[in-house]
Amino acid sequence: MNEFKPFDDRLAGLIAALSPAGRRRLTADIAKKLRRNQQQRIKSQKAPDGTAYVPRKRQPVRAKKGRIKREMFAKLHTNRYLKASGNDSAAVVEFTGKVQRIARVHQYGLKDRPGRNSYEIQYPERQLVGFDKVSIQLVEEEILLRLSSLKV
């Protein structure tokens, strides 16, 4: 027998005590906090494990003059492209629209064409979204806060 069985039963009872609207609010709040955490991490150019993103590849000497001064994924981490939503059973943080393809290519390190007439390029893996210790702690704290306010 599992030693956590009584704890699991009690936790299942507490979650079941939440109304569907309460669960929806809980998952929406969790999704918003996770999105904020992911946005800060992407802005600081760090993967979920804490390592820095692989820097951009240097451009050939004969290419355009100047250098790329913008940070990577400057617009991707905005609320416009990184959406948070929650329903009765799940909290979702996802990229929307056309940026989904760009995010997927960088998340998994796939090949893509940067321009219509260019060659395929292998992109290095840069994990944009993922769970780290802080994210897990945010979820746990939000659940505990919500369950502690229940009157059972």
TrEMBL record:
Region (Disordered) location: 36-65
Residue ranges, compositional bias (Basic residues): 55-65
InterPro entries per UniProt: Phage_virion_morphogenesis
Organism domain of life: Bacteria
Protein name: Phage virion morphogenesis protein
Species of the source: Kosakonia calanthes
